[in-house]
Amino acid sequence: MTGRCPAPATVLLLGLLACRGAVSQDKPAPASAPGPDSADILVFEKKLGGGKEDIYVIPARGGAERRLTDDPGTDILPRFTPDGRSVVFSSDRSGRFQLWEVPADGGPAQRIRSSGAEEWQADPSPDGGRIAFLSDIEGPVSLFILNRSNGAIRLLVRHGRRTDIGNPNWSPDGRRIVFSSNKGLGGHHVYVVDVATGQEQRASGFLAGACEPRFSRDGRSVVFVDRSHIARNRSRIVERDLASGTERVLVDWPALNYDPVFSPDGKEIAFASTVAGANAIYRLRLADGKSWRVTFGPGEARHPDYAPRR
């Protein structure tokens, strides 16, 4: 339901082949000090005691967290709207997961759409006029597009009743959506679908275990979580050039590393990692691999998203 990336059932040989030629880090740089000066804001979900999960924002360089939602339900998977004025998220506060929106400066949350289905993992289009989301409204979990002006929805991707689709994200030009799916054999892979035609193309390599994809800011590459290697308690973050298929490992810490997203200028990524124990949000500068921890204190933090620069 929440888009967590599963560990694949891999064989040893494939796992070893997946690690060849990787430029990796053994562990993160010291992360107790704030990163470079930045006006960026991050939104994320935080899980506290008793299973309660709410949406928070924090300066990307670190500092005081500010809670955006405070509901007994589960509020997860936040994404900023393109104008930065609000955050869309998934919540079961109405009894089942539905799409909600909350002002980025604070205020009451409003339901985006109401249905009798489970609907979650919303991602606004670059022009703000549409939302990609998952729904089981017609049976199998499928990828739909919501037109915000008239409320109409359109089916874009369906892979079958037993298939797990997840993590839709629009390309910067609004023409494509990247997502993950475990259709066929071999576990999860990353796919790119043309929004106009529905034509799909796989965007991850031969090995299984690729999920949680996000487009780069220029749309030329995709960053995703790679679970194709042996250890079940470890994952890498990989960037793949869509034209050439060339991959580079951005994060290979001895931990579960999840939820990558590029900064507005494309010079760094934010992501969640268990390298210090519980999930926390980190930033990593792509030029030199230097990293900084952003969230501290109790609770597990996941699924960061940068506010767009106005």
Can you tag this structure with a few keywords?
single chain; 310 residues; mainly beta; Neuraminidase; four-stranded antiparallel sheet; 1 helix
Low-pLDDT segments, ≥5 res: 8-26
Give the biggest beta sheet. Answer: 4 strands, antiparallel
Beta-strand residue percentage: 35-45%
Helix content: under 10%
CATH class: Mainly Beta
Architecture (CATH level 2) name: 6 Propeller
Please give the domain count: 1
In spatial order, strands of the major sheet run 3-2-1-24
Morphology = globular
Q: Count of DSSP E strands?
A: 24
CATH topology description: Neuraminidase
Count of helical regions: 1
Look at the structure and name the CATH superfamily.
TolB, C-terminal domain
Average pLDDT score: 88
Report what the structure shows.
It is a single chain. This protein has 310 residues and is mostly beta strands. It has a single domain, classed as TolB, C-terminal domain (Neuraminidase), CATH 2.120.10.30. 2% of the residues lie in helices and 43% in strands. It contains one helix and 24 strands. A four-stranded antiparallel β-sheet has the order 3-2-1-24, with no helix packed on it. A four-stranded antiparallel β-sheet has the order 4-5-6-7, with no helix packed on it. Strands 8-9-10-11 form a four-stranded antiparallel β-sheet, with no helix packed on it. Strand 5 and strand 6 form a beta hairpin. The protein is globular, with a radius of gyration of 18 Å. It starts with 11 loop residues before the first helix and ends with a strand. About 6% of the residues have low confidence.
